[in-house]
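In response to reviewer comment 3 from the previous cycle, which asked for concrete evidence that the modeling workflow produces usable outputs, we include below a single protein chain processed end to end. The sequence was submitted unchanged, and the resulting structure tokens are shown without manual editing.
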Amino acid sequence: MLEIIISLVFAIIIVSFWIEVYLKEKKKRYLIMIIITILGEISWFIYKGYFLKILELI
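The workflow returned the following structure tokens.
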């Protein structure tokens, strides 16, 4: 459970960093990086099996 929370916080920090950079620079490549980061985090969660545990909690 603690590992899931730490992973979620880490994912939110990474995505918020890219969003902040995108808002400053307004370049499309940063928007693409946000999408790639989110997809990467989702696939990692599915690989680790956390996705089903999060759905069970909801």
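DSSP finds three helices and no strands in the chain. We consider this sufficient to address the reviewer's concern, and the full set will be provided in the supplementary archive.
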